[in-house]
């Protein structure tokens, strides 16, 4: 049985986007990028909401695969392209090869099916998608970058309390803090 992890990078005040919808404050450091590459090597599939998919797809399939990009970023691009990607959207009509388009309305049943059928880690990304799949999420990963943005889209927009257990934490020389939480 697969494990669903919700992984998003945030500001230290808990936002994945600033008030204008920008994510440029989430620029990863090299030490973070190396850790991300290690994590992605163990991921069986990416599960994305439409907006995160659109933010990830072009940079990691076209821009950084080019010569001249740092080796650690080219490695992430290679790993990203080799990993099956599912995008949950009711507005997209087409997706690139290697990506499976799933109706947003079918997200719960599709992720439950993937969790039963894939023996590995399913990396969930996108705050609204994660909120709709909250009962299927096994772990929550937070990489907090050393920046405060003062508002925007929160890491997880839910209106109920969910107690978690800290199972791992790590700090990076760049000031990024990683925390991994599991359900009790």
Structure description:
The protein has 184 residues and is an alpha/beta fold. It has one domain (3-182): Dihydrofolate Reductase, subunit A, CATH 3.40.430. The chain is 30% helix and 29% strand. An 8-stranded mixed β-sheet has the order 5-4-3-6-1-7-10-9. A two-stranded antiparallel ribbon has the order 2-8. Helix 1 runs parallel beside helix 3 (71-82). It is globular, with a radius of gyration of 16 Å.
Topology:
Blueprint: E1 3-11, E2 15-17, H1 30-41, E3 43-49, H2 50-63, H3 71-82, E4 85-88, E5 99-102, H4 107-117, E6 121-125, H5 127-132, E7 139-145, E8 153-154, E9 165-171, E10 177-182
Parallel strand pairs: 1-6, 1-7, 3-4, 3-6, 4-5
Antiparallel strand pairs: 2-8, 7-10, 9-10
Which fold does the CATH topology refer to? Answer: Dihydrofolate Reductase, subunit A
Number of helices: 5
Q: Outline the low-pLDDT stretches.
A: none
Q: Mean of residue pLDDT?
A: 92
For the largest sheet, list the strands in their spatial order.
5-4-3-6-1-7-10-9
Query: What structural category arises from helix and sheet content?
Result: alpha/beta
The helix content is 25-40%
CATH class: Alpha Beta
Q: Which H/E pattern describes the elements?
A: EEHEHHEEHEHEEEE
Count of beta strands: 10
Give the terminus-to-terminus CA distance: 19 Å
Large-scale geometry:
globular
β content, as a range? 25-35%
User: What radius of gyration results from the CA coordinates?
Assistant: 16 Å
* Count of domain modules: 1
List keywords for this structure.
eight-stranded mixed beta sheet, alpha/beta, Dihydrofolate Reductase, subunit A, 184 residues, two-stranded antiparallel ribbon, 10 strands
């Amino acid at each position: 049985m697969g494990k669903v992890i919700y992984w998003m990078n945030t500001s230290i005040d808990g936002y994945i986007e600033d008030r204008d919808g920008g994510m440029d404050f989430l620029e990863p450091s090299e030490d973070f990028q190396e850790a991300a590459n290690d994590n992605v090597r163990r991921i069986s599939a990416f599960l994305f909401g439409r907006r995160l998919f659109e933010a990830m797809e072009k940079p990691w399939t076209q821009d950084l695969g080019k010569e001249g990009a740092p080796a650690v970023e080219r490695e992430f691009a290679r790993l990203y392209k080799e990993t099956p990607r599912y995008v949950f959207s009711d507005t997209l009509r087409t997706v690139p090869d290697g990506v499976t388009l799933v109706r947003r309305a079918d997200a719960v049943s599709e992720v439950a099916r993937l969790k039963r059928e894939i023996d590995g880690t399913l990396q969930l990304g996108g705050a609204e998608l994660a909120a709709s799949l909250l009962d299927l999420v096994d772990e929550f990963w937070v990489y907090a970058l050393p920046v405060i943005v003062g508002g925007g889209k929160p890491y997880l927009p839910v209106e109920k309390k969910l107690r978690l257990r800290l199972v791992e934490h790590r700090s990076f020389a760049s000031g990024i803090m990683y925390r991994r939480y599991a359900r009790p």
